[in-house]
Each structure stands twice: as structure tokens, then as C-alpha cells.
Design goal:
A 3-stranded antiparallel beta sheet has the order 1-3-2. It has a single domain (17-114), classed as Arc Repressor Mutant, subunit A, CATH 1.10.10. It has helices at 12-19, 24-33, 38-44, 50-62, 84-114; strands spanning 36-37, 66-71, 77-82. It is of the alpha+beta class. It is built from 5 helices and 3 strands; from the N terminus they run H-H-E-H-H-E-E-H. Helix 2 crosses helix 5 (84-114).
């Protein structure tokens, strides 16, 4: 009997587990560019709710994709930056982003036609 192939077997499962979610890839891209504060991320991604932003940042920190640095000053300041693991994932997502740019118009047209 043939073994059923699962996404985890080809590496997609673990990858999607760490960057799956509507905002994670975008957040990773933003903190890869430069360290960002929470408020700055909220302004740069205005459609994300504060609850979801907090959740995604916590999950990405737990997965080792981002580093959260607390500066003990008044007022307190926290910055998020990409870790080496996060940078490697962001670099791996570049071809996927290029594919999306190349095919975005066609995908949108087909979706409109299907409505």
C-alpha cells in the first residue's frame, strides 16, 4: 500500500505552520527591513486588529522568527526584529512574492469572472 503524501513530508507543513496566517509574512517582511515598534507595525498594517497583531508577534517570537527587545527606559520601548531564522524564511518567501506580483492581475480577473 502506498504511503499517503502529506504536506509535512515535503516541508510545506512546517513552513506553513510558522508563517501561516493572514499577516505573518507581511510582519516578517517589515521587521526584516528594520527593527519596528508595535505602534509602527500597527500603522503600517492598519487592517490588522491589535489582538491579532499581538497574537502573531507572540507566535512568531515563540517560533524563533522574531526577537522582541525591551528597552528599560521611560517611557518603556519594545522593538521587534527578524532573527537569523526569520531572515532565512523571509528570503525563502521572495520567490513566492514575485510569483504573486506576476500573476495577481490574472488571478483577480478569474475571481471576478467566477462571481
Amino acid at each position: 500500500m502506498a504511503k499517503k503524501v502529506q504536506p509535512e513530508n515535503c516541508g510545506l507543513g512546517p513552513a506553513f505552520q510558522v508563517f501561516g496566517g493572514k499577516w505573518k509574512a507581511l510582519l516578517l517582511w517589515l521587521v526584516h527591513q528594520e527593527p519596528r515598534r508595535f505602534g509602527e507595525l500597527k500603522r503600517l498594517v492598519p487592517d490588522v486588529s491589535e489582538k491579532m497583531l499581538i497574537q502573531h508577534l507572540r507566535e512568531m517570537g515563540a517560533d524563533g522568527l522574531i526577537h522582541r527587545e525591551v528597552f528599560h527606559e521611560v517611557p518603556p520601548r519594545v522593538e521587534y526584529s527578524a532573527t537569523e531564522l526569520g531572515v532565512s524564511l523571509d528570503d525563502a518567501l521572495v520567490p513566492l512574492a514575485n510569483w504573486g506580483k506576476k500573476h495577481a492581475a490574472g488571478i483577480a480577473a478569474r475571481r471576478r469572472a467566477a462571481e
